[in-house]
Each structure stands twice: as C-alpha cells, then as structure tokens.
Amino acid sequence: MERDLAIRLAGVGRRYALRGPWVLRGVDLGIGGGSLVRIEGANGTGKSTLLRLLAGIDAPSEGRREGRPRTAFVPERFPASLPFSAVGYLTHMGRVHGLARGAAERSAEQWLERFGAGGYARTPLAELSKGSSQKVAVAQALLADPELLVLDEAWTGLDAAARAELDRAVAERRAAGGAVVFVDHDPRRLLGATDETYAVVGNALNRRMGGGTWSQEEDGSAVLAGPTVVIETQGPLGAELPPSVASAATGIGEPTPEGVTRLSVPESRSDVVLKELLTALPPWHVVTVGGGAGANVPSTSASSVASVSASVEVGDRR
Ligand SMILES: Nc1ncnc2c1ncn2[C@@H]1O[C@H](COP(=O)(O)OP(=O)(O)OP(=O)(O)O)[C@@H](O)[C@H]1O
After folding, report:
1. CA pair distance 133, 124, nearest whole angstrom
2. What's the CA-to-centroid distance between 140 and ligand 1, angstroms?
3. CATH of the domain at 21
C-alpha cells in the first residue's frame, strides 16, 4: 500500500444476504492521509454501508480493506440507551481506543466542554436530549485523535455552535494528518474544504468532478440542480479521459470491461464535452447520449451524435 494512503478499499462489494442484491460492487477507493472526502447519493443507495466498510465495523462480502489506521466512527444512529453517564461512556470509549484511564477522563471532559455539553457530563445517556446525545456520539469519535475519522450525518441534531465546533475538529484532524470521510444531507457542508466527492449511483461509486449547483429536495436529500446528460464514451485502450472532460463531468463511472465510460454532464456543458471527446487526440468514440436527472434530451444513439461530430471544427482543437 502507498505510504500516504490512510485506507483503501480494493474491489469491494457488499450484499446483506447470500445471493441477495449487491448494495455496492467493484468499489475501489483510496483515501489519502490529511484528506477530506465527501460521499453522496440518494437515500438507500449505500452511503452508510460504504462508511461502515471504511470504518472497519462491517466486512466486505468481496474485495479487501487495506490499511489499519486508528479509526473512529460516528454512526447515523447512536445507541443512546447504553447504561452509562456521558462522561462514563466517553471514558470507557477512550480506554477502548487505548487511552489510560486518567487521559480518557480528561479527554472526555474536554470534548464535552468543547461541544457545550459539560453540564450534562454526569447525566445518564438515556436521559439526554437527541442533540446532547449526538454531542456525546461526536465526542466519542474525537477523543482518541483518530487517523481516520468517519462521520455519518454527524452534524444532524447539533446546535449551530456545536456544528461549528465539529467543523473545527475536522480541520484539526486533517492538520494533524488524519483523513476524514463524511456523509451529510447539507450540500454546503464543508464545501470549500472538501478534496474529493464521490457519489454512490446504482451499486457503484463514481467520482464527482466539476461544478454544478446543488439544491435540496423536500425530503432533505441533495440534488444537482438543472438537467444533466449521460454520455457513454469509449476511448483508445488505456487512455485517460481528456482533463477538460473530467473536470466538466459531475459523475464518472468505472469503465466497463469493453472500455465504455459513463459520464454525467450538466446539459449546459454537454456540447462542449462532446466536442472535446470527438476532437481529442486520438478521438473518443461517443456510444450514446441520453437524458440524466432532469434532462430534457431523449436518449439518442451514436448515429445522431454525428450531427454534433459534423459541427466540430478541427481548428477548435486545444
Ligand atoms: N444491516 C442490514 N441488513 C440488511 N440490509 C441492509 C442493512 N443495512 C443496509 N441495508 C440495505 O442496504 C441498502 C443501502 O442502505 P444504506 O443505509 O447503506 O443506504 P444510505 O445511502 O446510507 O441511505 P440513507 O440516505 O437513507 O441513510 C438499503 O437497501 C438497505 O435496506
């Protein structure tokens, strides 16, 4: 494994029953030390499944998790009925993470203070409000300085001050060389700081590149506003996508064994992307062009792409 990678999933698949449907398949994901990675996707696509695999609290049905960083996880649902006080639970977790008792107690109290929950330190977990138990869930993950911090909707339920404190804690972890992977329903969460964004689509993980305007659906899920176009394209054997195409795409699928790559592109940029593909040296073959989320364009076969191809002038080549 490369030295600077905190963790890698290699060819990972997960399904919950023998011969059941694959929730995830063929996931290759390397997370570098110090990086901040966002995972997104519609409800039920497998984001939490992916985070549990990264955190090592669930095992892949196929493929491997490589690397053994000291890992902490904030689950989507915190088991608030555990028979502990807040500080008792955190001290216990500190010891599980390898801290001595005194250090665990000090760290527990400091993190509760930081999240504005110092006043609840002696309160039984079962008596805490939802927001206060979320503070304990977050403190639990931070108290042992993890090398890999995995956050599943960790901001949900926190008040504004605690959300800002968690943002600061994420920045501190990264500054110390730790990697942070997160899922959050708010598309603006850590927006300027995120190094990479991946979307779970189908049962695959697509790296999302380029811009796009995010909006929020009524159910709280995030969607890319504006129509998108799906382009299937086949390049010369082993060729990388032209960089201008990669940066314009909002989603890039893993190539099929035949070398066909599926791209999601904002409709407003699809003409430019098609032109870039067709004028690349050597050119990429456009297999299909079709409507993605909210797209106005009907699915078309490659033959109708000829009109785009015909309008491309070689002089435009960059
Ligand atoms: N322990 C489990 N046993 C059986 N099926 C499961 C289990 N955990 C998740 N699944 C199934 O796997 C699929 C993906 O679930 P997962 O919770 O990973 O999605 P998600 O993208 O995090 O969803 P959400 O956005 O709603 O939180 C769903 O169909 C879910 O029912």
Report:
1. 10
2. 23
3. 3.40.50.300
What is each CA distance from 230 to 28, 265, 315, in whole angstroms? 22, 6, 26
Q: Does 156 lie in the same domain as 24?
A: yes
Ligand 1 centroid to residue 46 C-alpha, Å: 5
Q: How far is CA 314 from the centre of its chain?
A: 39
pTM > 0.80: yes or no: no
Tell me, yes or no, whether 176 and 217 share the same domain: no
The rounded Å distance from CA 270 to ligand 1 centre is: 33
* Greatest Cα pair distance in the chain: 73
Residue 9 lies in a domain: yes
Has residue 206 been placed in a domain? no
61 and 189 in a single domain? The answer is: yes
Query: Both 10 and 142 in a single domain?
Result: yes
Atom 29 of ligand 1, residue of closest alpha carbon: 44
- Residues with Cβ within 8 Å of residue 30, at least 6 apart in sequence: 2, 5, 7, 8, 9
Strand partners, 316: none
Q: Domain range holding 249?
A: 211-316
Decide: 220 in ligand 1 pocket, CB within 6 A. Answer: no
Protein residue with least CA distance to atom 8, ligand 1: 49
Neighbour tally for 280: CB within 10 Å: 19
Location of structure tokens 């029953």:
17
Q: Say yes or no: CB of residue 41 within 6 Å of ligand 1.
A: yes
ipTM: 0.98
Q: Is the CB of 203 under 6 A from ligand 1?
A: no
> pLDDT tens digits, residue range 133-177?
999 999 999 998 999 999 999 999 999 999 999 999 999 999 999
- According to the model, what pLDDT value does residue 304 have? 36
Q: For the chain, what's the residue count?
A: 318
